[in-house]
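The instructor's notes for this session suggest beginning with a concrete chain rather than abstract definitions. Hand out the sequence below and ask the class to guess, before any prediction is shown, which regions might be ordered.
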Amino acid sequence: MKRTEYFYHGEKVTDSENRIFSVLLIDSLLDDCDFSADEKDFCKANDFAFYGSGWQSWDFGGEIDAGKYQKKYFPIVPQWKQYFKIPGKQPKKLRSKKLLVGSFFIYLRWNYGGKNLYLAICSVGNVRLSGKLGKAGALPPVSFYVSRKKRSVTATSYADGKTWSEGEKIAELAVFSCRDFFSLRNHTKKLFGGGFGQLEFLNTTPKKSKITVAGWESWYNHYAEIDQKLIKDDLEGLAKTENLIKKHFLDKNKPVVFQVDDGWEIALGDWEGRRTRFPDGMKKLSSSIAEKGYIPGLWLAPFIIDYRSEMAKAHKDWILRDKKGKPIAAGLNPLWGDIFGKEQPSLPWSYFCLDLSRDEVVLYLDSLLETAINEWGFRYLKLDFLFAGMIFGNFKNGGAAYEWYDRAVKILTKRKVNKKGEPVAYLGCGLPFEASFNDFPLSRIGCDTKEDWDVAWISHANFPCRTSAFVNLQDTLGHSFWDNGIFVNDPDVVFLRYENISLSDKEKILIALVNFLFASQIMHSDDPVRFDSEKEGRFTQKIETLYRLFEDEDFGVENRDSTSYFIFSKSGIYTGFINLGEKAMEITRDEFVRRFGKANLNLETVVEYAERKAHSFVFEEHSISIYRVL
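After discussion, reveal the predicted structure:
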C-alpha cells in the first residue's frame, strides 16, 4: 500500500473550479503493486472493469464493464443533475464523454485465469486519527477521471471558493492492490478505521466485529400520507402480527427502531408537527413509540427548504444564491415547490438549499436537532437530502462548500446522548460520501429502492439516481466491501407484502437476502395492520428461516459483469449467483465452482432460481441462487 500527500505551493489563490492536483499512470501504479510479473503483464495488456462510487449516496456505485463507459443522462428533468453531477465547475479537459468518473474510492479490476485482480485508489485525507482531523481541518472531496485510452487517472479536489496558502494540504491518496473480495474489504477497513461504537445500542448481532441495525419505517408503503391514527395502528400492530421485524428481532429481544418518515411536518423548513395530522404533537408521538419498547425515529431534511414555507418567507436571505442573486435549486419534488409564480423563483416544483456559511442558519439547525432530540424525545434521526449542503453557491461568508458542510454536520450530530443520558444515532441519507463518513457512521449507500423493479421511462433517460429496486441492488452490492469499514451500510428496505407492490416473490427474496448478506441495516415498511397471516405469513417464515441459516456467515461478492455476481461465504460452506439482468444467464459449471479448485463439487440447494444442466447452470433473470457445498 502506498500513501501520498499533496500540498499547495505558490502564492495565495482562490479556486474558481475543481482543482487538478495529480495525474496517475495506471501502468506505473501496476509496477509498484504486489502482483506477480505475469499478472502485471496481463493487466497492462488488457482493459479493466471500473468501479467508481458516486459523489453522494444516491449516485450510482457499481462496476462498469471493460470497454464501456457511464451512460450520459438525457436531461428530461434539469434539476435532477444536482443529484449526480459533481458540484462546482469542472476543468475543461475533464468534460470528455470518454472518461470514467468516480469519487472518493475507485478500483480497476481484471480477471486473470479466474482470479480477480484489484487496483484501488481512494482519498484518505479526511480519515480521523484519534478522533481528530489534521490541523488544517477537513480536506476537500476528491474525484477521479479515468481514461481507458491514455490509461491514466486524473485526481481533482472540489475546492471551489477555497483560498489556498503556501503549504496547505490538498489531499492524501492511498493506492493498494489485492486479489479477492475479502482482502479488498480488509484493506478498506484498515484504511478507514471502522469504529462504530456509538451505534452499539442499536446492534442486533452478537458479533463483536459487526454492527447490524433493524427497524420499521413509514415511507415505502404510506409515503407522505401519514397521520396519527395510521402511525398508532402500525405501532400497535408491529408486535402483534408475525411480520419479519417481530419474528427475527422483537421475539429475540433485539433493539428495534420505529421511524416516522416524511409527511409529519408542516412544510419543508417549517419543522413542526402538522396539527391536522398529529393533533397530540410530536412529543406524545415519540413517547408512545418509546413506551412500546422501540427506539423513536424521525425523518428530517435540514439543508433544504420549500420557498413557500413560513421559514423561507421570514428568512429569504438564508437561501443559497448564485452570483446573480437567484436562489439555487437543489432538486425537484411536486410536494415541495410551486409550479411557477412569485413562490417559485426557479424551474417548476424546485426546492432550495440553505446557505450554511451563515451563523444564523447553523444556529437554527442546532435548535432544530435540540427540539427533535431533547424536547420531543427522538433518538434515531434520519437526516436526508444532505447533498444540498455541498452544492456550490455565492456563500455570504465566502469559502468552499466542504468547509461549511463540515461545520454544519458536526453541529447537527454533536448530541451523542440526550438529556436523559440515552444514546442517539443519526442515519445519513442522500449524503456526500467523503465529507460525511466521520459524522454519519450509519448511512444509506445507494439510491432509494422501490416496490417495483424499475421505472422504464427514467431508465431510458439514463438517470443514475432513480428510485428503483434494480439500481438499489447494484449500489448495495457495489458498496458491500465498505460495510462496517467506512459506513454501517444502510441498503434501504425489504418488501414481503402482497398489496401495493409489483415485485415478484423471486425479486423480494433477492432484495431480502442482498440486504441481509451484504449490508447492515434491515428496515421494513410493510403495513403490520394489514398483514396477511396466511400468504404473507408463509413467505415471511421462509425469509426468516434463511436469515437464521445465514446469520453467522460472512459473504463476499465478485462481479461477473455489471449486472451479475458470484457470491460465496468466507467459511467456504456456501456459494451462489445473482443475476440482476433482464435475461437468463448460462454459466458453465467449471466457472461457477472455480474458486474451490475442484471441478466435481456436490451442491445442495438452499435457494434456487436456475435450471441445472449437465455442465452448466442457467440462472433466471432478477434472481439469487445459493447452494451449500457438501
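Then share the key points. The first strand starts at residue 2 and ends at 7. The radius of gyration is 24 Å.
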